[in-house]
Amino acid sequence: MRTVPRTSFILAIVLVPLVLAAIPRTALAQTDEIQVYDAEIEEPGVFNIMVHNNFTPDGRKAPAFPGDIIPNDSDNGAAEWAYGMTPWFEQGLYFPVYSAYSKDRGGSLNGFKIRELFVRPHAHEHTFFFGINFEFSWNYSYWEDRRNTAEMRPIVGVHFHKWDFIYNPIMDTNWTGGPGNLEFVPAGRIAYNIVPDKWAVAVEQYSDFGTWNRFLPENDQFQEVWAVLDHNTKYVNIETGVGVGVTAGADKVTLKLMLSRDLNADHPHPLFKSLAHEQTAGSQP
Fold first, then answer.
1. Mean per-residue pLDDT, 95-101
2. Which of 129, 214, 216, 283 is deepest in the core (most CB within 10 A)?
3. R_g of the chain computed on alpha carbons
4. Domain regions of the chain by residue span
């Protein structure tokens, strides 16, 4: 019994990437989430909602594939629901994934995503932290070029005094082709915590290099650099920023706003809180 949580975590990290590695994807379309994952998850039994909103006042003016939503002047986002299952596992759901506005289409419902996030428990307490996230998407034809897509997002990072250094070497797949057709879309973040747990500033980088078997020419790649501000309050946590494209394949200017709040932090679900306590006790010698 005491080895089950650790074994489950290892199996999730080892087996799921092997499945995804066999199945790839192409072309960067729009995105509902602009975020670097830091391996922080909800406590067991706690329910959280995060609303993502991304506005592109000066973006790409041609669709990534026929019928795709055009990034320029579009406003896209998602409601992300998260639930702490164990100290090392969080279950998530993105619903709805939406466009508040896009050219020639107006507002639209774009699909939904299910995610499974596995991390080193209590990542904020460790100098070195890690995790891996899997997302499985169901898309409308104007959001992605395939109905079903997926993401594998490893997470590695270091807390060094007031500094955070985080890297997410993300790979996307549309379940076609071989391993060489996986799309490499990494993201990174360097943050300085002005007031720990309250105020932070960061520089973030988001990229799309193309598929492993065909990296795009440098100027056709998606490369954006972001200035980001984080502020946590008693009522809501805020992350906002502005991104600037540095290649022709990226949007010139994008704005993001993320608002999140725990919905039951004072009264977590008793079942998962109890299971988490048993697992923590079981892992002790």
1. 97
2. 129
3. 19
4. 4-282
Tens-place pLDDT, residues 47-72: 999 999 999 999 999 998 999 999 99
SS3 91: strand
Question: Residue 5 class from Cβ within 10 Å (0-12 exposed, 13-18 middle, 19+ buried)?
Answer: buried
Specify the DSSP class assigned to residue 44. Answer: B
Average pLDDT over the chain, rounded to an integer: 89
Two tokens, residue 176: 């076609």
- Asked if residues 40 and 130 have their Cβ atoms less than 8 Å apart, the reply is no
CATH superfamily of 4-282: monomeric porin ompg (2.40.160.40)
- The token duo for 67 is 């019928």
**pLDDT tops 90 at residue 15:** no
Q: HSE of 241 in the Cβ direction (CA atoms, 13 Å)?
A: 26
The predicted structure's pLDDT at residue 216: 96
